């Protein structure tokens, strides 16, 4: 798949590279796996001198031997004796960067933690003493977000405060997904929504589906739910290393959230545990879930719901993980029947998320969310507010336009509008067929 978007990130990397002409620069690129971190770094460096180091899980001296060969090939160095430590490799690169500017990409940077944690202290010392008189443009990429957060953002860690920028890469926008589909001549409302629902805009998943399917829902599900599909074990592969020994508890919580059990009391009741600490870590450390309050609710209010932020993981926990017995016995036909039975209900919830994201991408509102009252009464799917212009847009979202009821929507909005007295309200009905009008 060709390279899409990322213009803002490329501009930022370009600024840092320019600054590296005067002194060293350190950029961190993080984000979940498959979001395109490596592709971004390599796209940026394709026009200038660079080294790409991948930190695989092997002994330090073997990594250094591999890296040294790459250095020799790029810089045409004379014979160098054996190097067994990354400290020596980094020292050599800093010395070379005093003569010329180049970029060093270190991918899966967090893996040094399991190889030799002292590498981070060594790098901190060398960077602090050399940054001002070298021209190294250092880019550190990491996929285990909790470890990257610890390495660069926890105050007691040696590399805290050393990054000049931390770029948190997000999935493609809805407009980007639409561009991908347009290039494959499949940019209809249904196709755009189905691809959003399953991939959430992850470039790797879009690449897999555009390469292996005709982008219809049936063909996509045939590919995703096949015995050798890369999607079947994907959620487990992404999160087990992230969560560690307590992955079973985290997986159970995420399964409940994906099934619509979105309040902490429900989660506690189903699992028989106090889930607060787990939910906090899932949100703040792992960035897998987010909290949502009614749009007019005060910050300290406990009226809130949890949601899995990643569309694919939401789909995976809702349908694949929750039916793991069928998966383990290879009964993909059963799994397909479950999805066919529940898809409309599930898709209705995701369509609400789709339109909230689409309205956010318009940059016309400073506040976008949903609204509900205690006991989930008077639920409103989308509320968008512009405090400067004093306007509020309230929408009912349904897969089928025939199910939209604007009279009921106005009635449910009465209490909400009292909090926005003086704002000009508008009421919308948004269905699957309206998507392309707003993209």
Topology:
Blueprint: H1 7-19, E1 25-30, H2 37-45, E2 50-54, H3 60-75, H4 86-97, E3 102-107, H5 112-115, H6 118-130, E4 136-142, H7 145-153, E5 165-168, H8 174-183, H9 189-199, H10 203-212, H11 217-224, H12 234-243, H13 247-258, H14 264-271, H15 276-284, E6 289-292, E7 305-308, H16 311-320, H17 324-328, H18 332-361, E8 367-373, E9 377-386, E10 391-397, H19 406-412, H20 414-418, E11 424-430, H21 435-438
Parallel strand pairs: 1-4, 1-5, 2-3, 3-4, 10-11
Antiparallel strand pairs: 6-7, 8-9, 9-10
Helix pairs in contact: 4-6, 8-9, 9-18, 13-16
Describe this structure as you would to a colleague.
- With 439 residues, this protein is an alpha/beta fold.
- Helix content is 49%, strand content 15%.
- It is built from 21 helices and eleven strands.
- Helix 4 (86-97) packs parallel to helix 6 (118-130).
- The two termini are 22 Å apart.
> Please, what is the average pLDDT?
94
Poorly predicted runs: none
Number of strands: 11
Backbone CA Rg: 24 Å
Distance N terminus to C terminus? 22 Å
What general outline do the C-alpha atoms trace? globular
Which class of the largest domain in CATH terms?
A: Alpha Beta
- Number of helices in the DSSP assignment: 21
The portion of residues assigned to helices is: 40-55%
The structural class is: alpha/beta
Estimate nothing, just give the exact number of structural domains. Answer: 4
Per the CATH scheme, the topology name of the largest domain is: Rossmann fold
In the CATH hierarchy, the architecture of the largest domain is 3-Layer(aba) Sandwich
- Which strands sit side by side, in order, in the main sheet? 2-3-4-1-5
| CATH superfamily caption of the largest domain | P-loop containing nucleotide triphosphate hydrolases
